[in-house]
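Pilot study result, target chain (310 residues):
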Amino acid sequence: MSISEQRYDVIVLGGGPAGLSAALWCSELGLTSVILDKQARLGGQLHWIHVPIKNYPGIELANGAEYLERLTTQLHSRKFEARTSIEIDQVDVNQKRVVLRSGEVFAGRAMIIATGVRRRKLGVEGEDKFLGRGILQTGQTGREELRNKNLLIVGGGDAAFENASALSSYAAKTYIVHRRESFSARPAFLERVIKDPGIEIITNSTVTSISGGDRIESVEYVNNKTGDLKFLSIDALLVRIGVLPNTELFRDELDLDEKSYLRIDHTGKTSVDDVFAIGDVANPISPTISTAIGTAATVAKSISSPLKIR
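Predicted structure:
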């Protein structure tokens, strides 16, 4: 055993709502646990929810920060450890062992993967250069800087259309570029956008590059049917083309589906015994706070069973 190895009943990878709920339930069931998170602060995607949360059963919240505050307060009386700003060097799912770049080693009798998802990028020239210099990470916090400016939103789902509707009153002009003719956004979102005179929809088109000086100034896009290249002068860009699960660490270790989400059974177990997955990283159908919390409870119960802990 490594001198620096620290042992727990459960290793939790990820400190979003799923991981935090898992730690709460582990404490409730008498299991020692540690959360390992690469971010500087716990909370995961809750830090990016700036709109009211109205679909969580029993309560309504102003935003993700309010929910995180309530959850954190509840966790103060619970027994678990948390390590943030960590860099993982190696994960051995068979041994339930995590090695950090710092040399520290964490081992458990069970492992819970709650690494969540990240926003999909366009993957085009200029995207990294203009991040924070016209490319917005979140529309809600960038509203004021949009006044009298042209905004482009890329995407065709709920996130793209909801942001377009919310931000069009701030921007001088809002464009939506989508690679297909049809959209996956809810009818209510779609109807609001279509009726908004400040929004122009460009279909069957794909952004191919982003240009500018100190800040973003334009994008080039191609018509997928005709092949014609066009330029659009913009001041701000918001990319909402879906998400990718954070499963790179497990690609050669655990079974993934065709979209790289972790495959789990009804108990939350992955393809390796005593390794479980919860929240968005294993649930592309309903990536919600409710699902994250529910799967955390299910997995903690599964681990606490005498049939599981050996």
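One observation from the pilot: The mean pLDDT is 92. A full batch analysis is planned for the follow-on phase.
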